[in-house]
Specification:
By secondary structure, the protein is α/β, with parallel strands linked by helices. Helix content is 26%, strand content 21%. It has 8 helices and 15 strands. It has helices spanning 34-50, 94-104, 141-151, 189-197, 207-210, 231-239, 250-253, 272-280; strands at residues 9-13, 54-58, 74-77, 80-83, 108-109, 124-127, 130-135, 154-159, 172-174, 179-182, 201-204, 218-220, 223-226, 243-246, 264-265. The strands form 5 sheets. A 3-stranded mixed β-sheet has the order 2-1-15, covered by helices on one side. Strands 3-4-5 form a 3-stranded mixed β-sheet, with helices on one face. The chain has a 3-stranded mixed β-sheet with strand order 6-7-8, sandwiched between helices. The longest helix is centred in the N-terminal third of the chain and has 17 residues, at 34-50. The structure holds arginine (ARG).
C-alpha cells in the first residue's frame, strides 16, 4: 500500500461571486450567506495547506456563480490541461477563463473535439491506472473517447442514473493505492462492477452516508479533508491510518458541491503521462 501519487497541489477559485441563482442539480436552493461562504472557503484552503498541500488561486469572474467549483474546469495530465466543456449554458463561459488561467500558469492546453461534454475531474476521477468517468448526467461518451485519444488512458464509464449523483466525484474518492470510498449504487450494474474491480479494499458507502457528501472529499497524503464524516466512515478511515479533517462547506452544498468540487488537483497524470511518471519514480 502506498499513498496516492497525486493530491498535493490544487487550484481553487474564491467565492467572491458565488451564489445560487439557477438550478441545474436537485441540491440547488436556499440563500447563500456570502460572508459564511468566504470563511468556509478560506478554512478549506487553510486545511489543505495544514495537511502539507499547495493551493493556487484562480481569479473569480462576475456572473459565473458556480466558477468556485473548479473540479469541473478540466483535467490535468502531467504538463497538459484538458479544458472541460460544460453541459449547461449557465456554466459554459467558465471554460474560457480557465483556459486563460491554465496557459498563464504554464500548462499546455489540449482541446476536446466539438460535441464532447466533460465536466472536469469532477466527472473523470483517476483511480490507479484508469479514470472513472460518469455519463448520462453531465459528461458524455464522446468525451470519454476524446480523453483516451488525447492521453491513452483507459476510461471506466459509469452511467449515473440518479439525478442526485450527477458527477462521479459525489460517489468516489480514491484514498491510497488500495483503497477508495465508493457509492456503487449510483452507477449502472456494469459500471459498479467495473469500479469495484479496480479497488482492492473498497469502503462502500450507504445511501445515507453518500448523502452527507462524504465521498466529495480530498486526500492530501494521509489526511482526508471531508465536508462531513459519518461515524462508521470515520472509524474505518482512522483504522486505515488516515487523519480526518472535517471542513464545513454547507454554503456550497446549497449549490450541490462540497470539498472535492471546490478543488482541482493539478498534479494528476493519466494514461501515457502516468506511465512516464511511474518510469521516472
Ligand atoms: N452547481 C454546480 C453544478 O451543478 C455544482 C458543481 C459541483 N461540482 C462537482 N465537481 N461535483 O454544476
Amino acid at each position: 500500500m502506498s499513498d496516492l501519487t497525486w493530491g498535493q497541489r490544487y487550484a481553487m477559485c474564491a467565492p467572491t461571486f458565488f451564489d445560487v441563482v439557477y438550478s441545474i442539480n436537485p441540491w440547488m436552493g436556499g440563500t447563500v450567506d456570502p460572508d459564511v461562504a468566504m470563511t468556509q472557503w478560506e478554512t478549506l484552503a487553510a486545511a489543505i495547506r495544514m495537511a502539507g498541500g499547495e493551493v493556487d488561486v484562480v481569479q473569480p469572474m462576475a456572473d459565473l456563480p458556480d466558477m468556485v467549483f473548479v473540479a469541473n474546469a478540466g483535467v490535468v495530465s502531467g504538463p497538459a490541461f484538458i479544458p472541460g466543456a460544460m453541459r449547461y449554458p449557465e456554466r459554459a463561459p467558465e471554460t474560457a477563463a480557465f483556459v486563460q488561467w491554465a496557459g498563464a500558469v504554464g500548462f499546455t492546453v489540449e482541446r476536446l473535439p466539438e460535441g464532447a461534454v466533460l465536466e472536469g475531474t469532477g466527472d473523470a476521477m483517476p483511480l490507479g491506472d484508469v479514470v472513472v468517468s460518469g455519463y448520462g448526467a453531465r459528461t458524455n461518451r464522446a468525451a470519454h473517447a476524446a480523453l483516451t485519444r488525447l492521453t491513452d488512458v483507459e476510461v471506466v464509464p459509469v452511467r449515473l442514473q440518479d439525478p442526485r449523483w450527477y458527477h462521479v466525484d459525489l460517489t468516489l474518492c480514491p484514498l491510497d493505492s488500495r483503497r477508495a470510498m465508493v457509492y456503487p449504487e449510483a452507477y449502472d450494474r456494469a459500471g459498479a462492477a467495473a469500479v469495484i474491480a479496480h479497488i482492492a479494499e473498497p469502503l462502500v458507502l450507504t445511501e445515507a452516508e453518500a448523502a452527507t457528501f462524504a465521498a466529495n472529499s480530498i486526500v492530501v497524503g494521509r489526511t482526508v479533508i471531508m465536508p462531513a464524516c459519518p461515524p462508521r466512515v470515520g472509524r474505518l478511515l482512522e483504522a486505515w491510518g488516515f487523519d480526518v479533517v472535517v471542513v464545513d462547506v454547507g454554503e456550497f452544498q446549497k449549490a450541490g458541491g462540497a470539498v472535492r468540487c471546490l478543488t482541482l488537483p493539478l498534479d494528476t497524470s493519466i494514461g501515457r503521462d502516468r506511465v512516464a511518471q511511474m518510469e521516472v519514480a
